[in-house]
Amino acid sequence: MSEASTAVDAWEALFRAQVSVLRALSAEFPTDEISLTEYDLLFNLSRQPEHRLRIRDLHAHLLLTQPSVSRMVDRLAARGLVAKSTDPSDGRGTIVTLTDDGHELYRRVGVQHARSISRIVGGALSPAELRQLAALCVKLRTATAHEATHAS
Amino acid sequence: MSEASTAVDAWEALFRAQVSVLRALSAEFPTDEISLTEYDLLFNLSRQPEHRLRIRDLHAHLLLTQPSVSRMVDRLAARGLVAKSTDPSDGRGTIVTLTDDGHELYRRVGVQHARSISRIVGGALSPAELRQLAALCVKLRTATAHEATHAS
DNA sequence: CTCCACTCTATGCATACGCAACGAGCGGTC
DNA sequence: GACCGCTCGTTGCGTATGCATAGAGTGGAG
Lengths: 152, 152
Fold this sequence. Notes:
Two copies of one chain form a homodimer.
Chain A: H1 3-27, H2 36-46, E1 52-54, H3 55-59, H4 66-78, E2 82-86, E3 94-98, H5 100-120, H6 127-151
Antiparallel strand pairs in A: 1-3, 2-3
Helix pairs in contact in A: 2-5
Chain A binds a DNA duplex through helix 4.
């Protein structure tokens, strides 16, 4: 089997696994409070120093187009879950900051979400396999993000 | 580190990698011809004996709700890429079959898509790592699909 | 200092999506 | 054979999304 088809098979396997797990996770996600994509946005903010990012940088972490991220930020700001402010170092930019309310909701939903993940993903692979999978995915993401920046 | 957080870390890593790769793939996918999700639908049909599935079974492979799959099938049928027919063994069911046109488009787009995958995913991991990643993902998907059926 | 090319985010519009509900079909019970 | 509970796919509706575009801001060249 050529290297090319090995890569295709690996990607297909990853994508299929992600669809399968995401379907199971979606089934028990509290969508009445927040959507999975909105949760992902809050997650990305929570990982940043001071829980803040410019919309441009936030967009790079999400699977939405830039106008959709802009709109989602608007909706979350309207609910008081994030705050928007102009970037003092670049007037073009908008800084999005996780509010206390947003952080509280993120944590509350996150605990429940983590339980689902532990059962579904944790039940499928051993700890050693999980660490192995994590390492491979980090390498894949790092190299891919690099290529995207390089291609620009 | 507990098993629970190992599972959460592994899932986060997988999800982030998937977002990163999908962003890069989307950037060069021929969306003027077909969307990535429509392509995924055709892909799932192409994998079946006789390239056909009931909508219910097709839905299980996709990240859309059942009505959305129904609508997408309608749109693809309108373009002649798939054909719909009533299931002779169960009048409630609709069989979706990949047409010659649909198969031709799927293959053409698939070749281009496979090149992107080879460069992006193949450039990030070695052949041994790719096989390892594929094996772990197959195991994850198999266990997860099993749990979904079990929970029903 | 002015101008211009580009960056960055927001907005208008058309389409796709999810949710809720509906109607046709199936299979088991009486 | 009739009835009922459930399955399965379709449809109506409101919202989210992507595409194209506009306008404000930046930085570098002249």
